[in-house]
Design brief:
alpha+beta, paralog of FGE (formylglycine-generating enzyme), 4-stranded antiparallel β-sheet, 12 strands, globular
Length: 261
């Protein structure tokens, strides 16, 4: 994991940013404590390890095409795509699948460290933490600049060899200034927050914005089949916690966060 320093930033996009959606405002200053974020998305092989150990059965992300992770038990598990590379980001996952992985990993940590207090160190990042880490001190539409450029990410129009073809391995592109790989493009990334249509009354301390009843959660970063307007540091959307939205659930993965002392 990568240590992300404490700091403050302006969350959201300015009115004049090309491709901006109304749900990216109003801009507001957020102050965050230091935290850690995974250098990469959870990979296909890491998610298979979880399935083999637990027998957990994710629901299909596309029931019509029977696209799903298969977990028959007995230490066997299979990814959605035949011969899927081990270092592809795990995708075809809903928010509940991500939380199941987090719960399993924290249980493993508690077994290894019986004296550990609390539920465990790992969690999903808040939406504010995600954007702060994705920007890595920059204020442009993307950490590398305002223009999409070439060979900076995997999307439909990002100018790489993967353009609108398939996922790329998690370390296929250079990292941002914080040392994080794949924050933009490749797969949407789940965050802890409930979905809200804008930032009015949003927290300003970096914590997740939650509700008592919450059926949709925030996704960030864009995916391999999105056009470049979705591959921006401020771009955001919401997905159903238990799937049900083809475009997002089939193209969604996640990365881990944890608090620092």
């Amino acid at each position: 994991m990568v240590g992300i320093p404490a700091g403050k930033f302006v969350m959201g996009s300015p009115a004049g940013e090309p491709g901006r959606f109304d749900n990216e405002g109003p801009q507001h200053v957020v102050s965050l404590k230091a935290f850690a974020l995974a250098k990469y998305d959870v990979t296909s092989e890491e998610f298979l390890t979880f399935l083999r150990a637990t027998g957990y059965k994710p629901a299909p992300c596309n029931a019509l095409l029977n696209m799903q992770w298969r977990s028959p038990g007995g230490g066997y598990a299979y990814p959605p795509y035949d011969e899927e590379p081990h270092r592809w980001p795990a995708s075809c996952l809903d928010w509940k699948d991500a939380q199941a992985y987090v719960a399993w990993l924290n249980a493993e940590v508690r077994l290894a460290r019986p004296g550990l207090k609390g539920p465990g160190p790992y969690r999903l990042p808040s939406e504010a933490e995600w954007e702060y880490a994705a920007r890595a001190g920059t204020t442009t539409a993307r950490w590398w600049g305002d223009d999409i450029g070439k060979d900076n990410a995997n999307c439909n129009g990002c100018g790489s060899k993967y353009d609108f073809r398939a996922l790329a391995e998690v370390d296929s592109f250079k990292p941002n200034p914080f040392g994080l790989y794949g924050m933009l493009g490749n797969v949407w990334q789940w965050t802890a927050d409930c979905w809200h249509k804008g930032y009015i009354d949003a927290p300003r301390d970096g914590r997740p914005w939650m509700e008592k009843t919450c059926t949709k959660h925030v996704l960030r970063g864009g995916s391999w089949d999105n056009v470049p307007v979705f591959v921006r540091s401020a771009a955001r959307t919401g997905g159903e916690a238990d799937g049900g939205e083809f475009d997002y659930s089939t193209l969604a993965g996640f990365r881990l966060a944890r608090d620092l002392p």
